[in-house]
Design a protein that fits this description.
The protein has helices at residues 20-36, 50-59, 87-94, 105-119, 133-139, 153-157, 177-190, 204-217, 232-243, 260-263, 279-289, 313-326, and strands at 6-14, 40-43, 61-64, 77-79, 99-101, 123-127, 147-150, 167-171, 222-226, 249-252, 268-273, 293-301. It is of the alpha/beta class. It folds into three domains: 6-18 and 204-301, 4-hydroxy-3-methylbut-2-enyl diphosphate reductase, catalytic domain (Cobalt-precorrin-4 Transmethylase, domain 1, 3-Layer(aba) Sandwich), CATH 3.40.1010.20; 20-104, Rossmann fold; 116-190, 3-Layer(aba) Sandwich (Cobalt-precorrin-4 Transmethylase, domain 1), CATH 3.40.1010.20. A five-stranded parallel sheet has the order 10-9-11-1-12, with helices on both faces. α9 (232-243) links the parallel β9 and β10. Mean pLDDT is 94; it is low at 321-327.
């Protein structure tokens, strides 16, 4: 006798998955492969998602951690969406490498802010996670000591600054909106004259995805976020789900990582995906759950996203020319 499936409602958070910066970075690698052929070298993972990286590797991308792993063969070198320290393009220029910068424009905005504050003689306090590529890239825009890193509210008390009246702060773009607001409040309390960005640094996609998770969290018995363990924005979604009323939340990379014992007894499951996770992985997880449960999917939409970032002109021109040839 066939065992009867239990019912499960999946509340699908929207927006979820790819943001404009990630989409742009992937396009840059794909268009470079089309125009210049394989191999195309990519410094660091182009985005934090194994499925995406493996797909691009299959097409001819070679991922490296440092430029000295790349031969002088004239092929393009692409810098990841997270941004790089200024020393990296300087080394590339010294070796006469052909490089294309896939840094997300919203990360570049933070770089420019930090440089503007530094030009005005201010010391910068960066809110972010130690060792994250975006943090390494932002701190690397300025000389050593020009940027101080703080990760928590508690860390604010331990900051040793040069001049309490001459400070500015910036933030990593993929942080928890709520946690960052608490850290900013602590900075302003300790340093009342500190300058902030004209518009907050946490990107629209991070804010929207966290907002969508907040909307469904209290209605869920459990929540799954699809994303990589090294993806900051994906990990923050798990934390937000738990903070806003979901009993338990976990991060998975692929459907094969689902923990069936963990899902036992769950009637309503929240589902979201980090900004580096493609929609195909969301569909894969839903399909896998449907093998064991009678699944009803309900989308909860917070806001419509229509942000698009242009790829670099050198690749846009190539695309336009290819289109003209095909007419």
């Amino acid at each position: 006798m066939t065992e009867q499936k239990s019912n499960m409602t999946i509340l699908l958070a929207s927006p979820r998955g790819f943001c404009a910066g990630v989409d742009r970075a992937i396009q840059i690698v794909e268009k470079s492969l089309e125009k210049y052929g394989a191999p195309v070298y990519v410094r660091h993972e182009i985005v934090h998602n194994k499925y995406v990286v493996e797909g691009l590797r299959h097409k001819g991308a070679i991922f490296v951690e440092e430029l000295d792993e790349i031969p002088n063969d004239g092929q393009p070198v692409i810098f990841s969406a997270h941004g790089v320290p200024k020393s990296v393009p300087e080394k590339a220029k010294a070796r006469e490498m052909f490089f294309i910068d896939a840094t997300c424009p919203l990360v570049s905005k933070v770089h420019k802010e930090a440089e503007r504050h530094f030009a005005k003689g201010r010391q910068i306090i960066l809110i972010g996670h130690t060792g994250h590529p975006e943090v390494v890239g932002t701190m690397g825009q300025l000389p050593d000591g020009a940027v101080l890193l703080v990760e928590t509210v508690e860390g604010v008390a331990g900051l040793e600054v040069n001049d309490i009246g001459n400070l500015a702060y910036c933030t990593q773009t993929t942080l928890s909106v709520d946690d960052t607001a608490d850290i900013v409040a602590a900075l302003k309390k300790r340093f009342p004259e500190i300058k902030g960005p004209h518009k907050e640094d946490i990107c629209y996609a991070t804010t929207n995805r966290q907002g969508a998770v907040k909307e469904i969290a209290a209605d869920c018995d459990a929540m799954i976020v699809i994303g990589a363990p090294n993806s900051s924005n994906s990990n923050r979604l798990v934390e937000v789900g738990e903070s806003y009323g979901c009993q338990k939340a976990m991060l998975v990379q692929r459907a094969v990582d689902l923990d069936w014992a963990w899902l036992e007894g769950v009637k309503t499951l929240g589902l979201s995906a980090g900004a580096s996770a493609p929609e195909v992985l969301v569909e894969e997880v839903i399909d896998m759950i449907a093998t064991r449960y009678n699944v009803k999917v309900e989308t909860r939409s917070l806001v419509e996203e229509n942000v698009v970032f242009n790829i670099p002109r050198v690749l846009r021109d190539a695309t336009e020319n290819e289109c003209k040839k095909s007419v």
